[in-house]
Amino acid sequence: IFYQKELNIVIVGLQNSGKTSLTDALTSKPFEQDTIPTLGMRMEHFHLGLNTVRVFDLAGQDRFQHMWKRYFARADLLIYVIDLSDSTNWPQVKQNLHQVICDTNRDSIPMLIVGNKIDLLIALESGSTISGRKLPKKTAADQNALEQWKYMAPLLRNYEYDDIPTYSLDETNLYVLRNVETLSKELGLDLKNGILHMPESQIYLDRDLAVFTISCKNGDYVRDIIDWIVQL
Ligand SMILES: Nc1nc2c(ncn2[C@@H]2O[C@H](COP(=O)(O)OP(=O)(O)OP(=O)(O)O)[C@@H](O)[C@H]2O)c(=O)[nH]1
Ligand SMILES: [Mg+2]
Fold it and tell me: Which of 39, 59, 82, 129 has the largest count of CB atoms under 10 Å?
């Protein structure tokens, strides 16, 4: 797709996940703390070498989700954004993501799954919480584990889906989702074998697919997304 003159990126995900913030980051606009929920769709441009990239930033509110399908048809790349800091939303996130994957799998549209707001997960690790409740201090063993949970490239070494531990997610252990392997497991995505595990069934993923964790607020790993798009 890099030989094309124009590349269409369609960004979806539940409301408040950070789609508009990611669009701003990709188009070199500053981060905004107080955004307005998107109504319908917003289109932005940026340049990648000689190519023009069009970003379709769709609205995530329930009442707009029926519009997403219309944009899938013209997508060269689909980005699904997840707010990793909201554990209460998790079952809904999974269901919604699975639906989007199923809706677009036949057309083999390359897909990037982006876990956003890792800056809030870091805040959780260091003992403060979003809700203000104090968490127990980290032990040395926790610290070692965290070292291994640094960001990993999508080409994961020694990736074995069945060996990745699962968690009962709540606000005290959400930070495990910063790890791309753990996130893929929680989402039911076997990245090595290209299988999506859903509660009742499984499907083969016939497409390029990667998982990243980022912070639109700090700009962490946004560059990696651009690099991934370039190598597609
Ligand atoms: N801490 C933190 N907040 C973020 C980050 N990314 C986005 N936000 C905040 O999350 C809120 C929602 O961001 P938006 O980008 O508007 O979310 P959206 O997915 O476009 O929402 P809809 O348009 O309603 O679907 C805003 O208050 C942002 O400032 C991040 O990486 N870290
Ligand atoms: Mg928006």
Answer: 82
8 Cβ below 6 A of ligand 1: no
Q: How would you class 151 by CB atoms within 10 Å of its CB: exposed for 0-12, middle for 13-18, buried for 19 or more?
A: middle
Whether residue 219 has its Cβ less than 6 Å from ligand 1: no
Instruction: State the Cα–Cα distance between residues 24 and 19, nearest whole angstrom.
Output: 9
pLDDT digits (tens, 9 = 90+) for 119-175: 998 666 555 444 434 444 445 544 444 333 333 334 566 788 999 999 888 888 888
What's the pLDDT at 63? 97
Name the CATH topology of 6-231: Rossmann fold (3.40.50)
Kind and range of the H or E element at 46?
strand 41-48
